[in-house]
Write a structure and sequence with these properties.
It contains four helices and no strands. With 59 residues, it is an all-alpha fold. It has one domain: Winged helix-like DNA-binding domain superfamily/Winged helix DNA-binding domain (Arc Repressor Mutant, subunit A, Orthogonal Bundle), CATH 1.10.10. It is elongated.
């Protein structure tokens, strides 16, 4: 899992860490980082797709 996380682009890794390790909602991540909510949602979606592929799951 660590290797898969470290392979993500920084922006995607940041939103995943805030969501899953800090327990923040996407709207809270947007407020904390100053990013638009749509950007946060897109980064989470892309990161989850990449993690799924890296960990051998289906997309």
């Amino acid at each position: 899992m660590r290797a898969a996380l470290s392979s993500l682009p920084t922006e995607q890794r940041e939103v995943i860490e805030l969501a899953y390790f800090d327990g923040l909602a996407q709207s809270e991540i947007a407020a904390r980082t100053g990013q638009p909510l749509g950007t946060v949602k897109t980064r989470v979606r892309l990161a989850m797709q990449k993690l799924g592929t890296a960990l051998g799951g289906a997309r």
